[in-house]
């Protein structure tokens, strides 16, 4: 853990805050890590969704062309 924690633009020294403040800092950092993980998972899922849409459009277009030429 870094020796400093930034809260609303203010750098707090971990060595000078209460135990409860340290626990809260740890909880905030844990939540922020979890949010970053979820954002990463969301980006992966969104990319897959867009790719599926693109493939579906091509599939529908190919099906329509076969119907038109068949």
From TrEMBL:
This protein's source sits in the domain of life called Bacteria
| Name of protein | Uncharacterized protein
